[in-house]
Specification:
It contains 6 helices and 18 strands. It has 293 residues and is an alpha+beta fold. The protein has one domain: Clavaminate synthase-like (Double-stranded beta-helix). 42% of the residues are buried.
Length: 293
């Protein structure tokens, strides 16, 4: 589906294999007119994830992508609009470690999670180190009518205790100060204007009002739809890949890294309400509150 605009701007859009995402191609180093920005925004709204093969992409252009989506970039240290995730850079969150992470959407433990995330690959191991994306929108659409009606009023609590990402968090063992928030399990996504099933594998600790097996049964049923192989896209990274995804419509996960090789991404994220300090300020303050410093 090529999306053309007035003048010279042209975006070529090719759906990715699988249930979500599209690869886009355009003159990203040039000046973008309003038609180019509108085409990017519409492609993102429709496909929930866009891939741009962009060797040498400048950080200013990565920031411009988030702004083109109508989002305010979130802030990192010293007010920077970008940061790094890496198993090599000690300046990265978690002291540079990059272990496995269960399926999740970033900052779902806040009243307003991040709207969109972009990662630009600057270094990847020689062995595959993929990121997996599961469609909450696809899972919600696949629900039978009776189940969707049953879940329409259900709420879930999400929590983080800053202990890594390979084990589900637990309200009973979490610190009292651990940040948490409650959301409808069928959440309306403002970007796509579609409903997303947001019961994840990492941050969701309970279905409100459903204790024990009743809540866990609902969680397992939701995961049957979310993590079905037909509802998941696997992205195998190449240096120069820019992947931008809707953090509410999709969940993401990663496996343990190969034993050797650097994996470094430049990250720019954005939020509809005007930007949040998701990592260097709010994230670190919340972590300090839990750890006592």
């Amino acid at each position: 589906m090529p999306a053309s605009s007035k003048g010279e701007a042209l975006i070529a859009v090719s759906p990715l294999p699988g249930p979500l995402g599209a690869e886009v191609a355009f003159d990203y180093n040039g000046e973008w007119d309003d038609d180019t920005r509108n085409a990017l925004r519409e492609t993102f709204r429709r496909y929930h994830l866009i891939l741009l093969r962009a060797p040498g992409l400048l950080v200013a252009k990565q920031i411009e992508v988030i702004e083109a989506l109508g989002l305010e970039p979130d802030r990192w240290r010293d007010g920077e609009k970008f940061g790094f995730l890496s198993n090599n850079l000690k300046s990265a969150p978690n002291d540079g470690q990059h272990s496995a992470y269960l399926y999740h959407s970033d900052l779902m433990w806040k009243p307003e999670p991040i709207s969109a995330i972009s990662l630009y690959a600057t270094a990847v191991p020689s062995e595959p180190s993929p990121t997996f994306f599961a469609s909450g929108v696809g899972a919600a659409a696949a629900l039978p009518d009776d189940l969707r009606a049953q879940w329409a009023t259900e709420q879930a609590m999400f929590l983080i205790d800053f202990n890594g990402g390979d084990t589900r968090y637990n309200e009973e063992t979490a610190s009292p100060e651990a940040p948490r928030a409650t959301h409808p399990i069928l959440l309306e996504d403002a970007i796509s204007q579609q409903t997303s099933l947001i019961i994840d594998s990492l941050f969701m600790v309970k279905i409100v009002g459903k204790e024990g097996e009743e809540g866990e049964s609902l969680r397992r049923r939701a995961h049957e739809y979310l993590y079905d192989t037909g509802n998941v896209y696997r992205h195998d990274w190449q240096v120069g890949d820019l992947v931008v995804w809707n953090n509410v419509a999709l969940q993401h996960a990663r496996e343990n890294l190969p034993d050797g090789g650097e994996r470094t991404f430049r990250r720019v994220s954005g939020t509809r309400s005007g930007g949040i300090s998701g990592w260097e300020t709010n994230y670190k303050k919340a972590q300090q509150a839990v750890s006592g410093g």
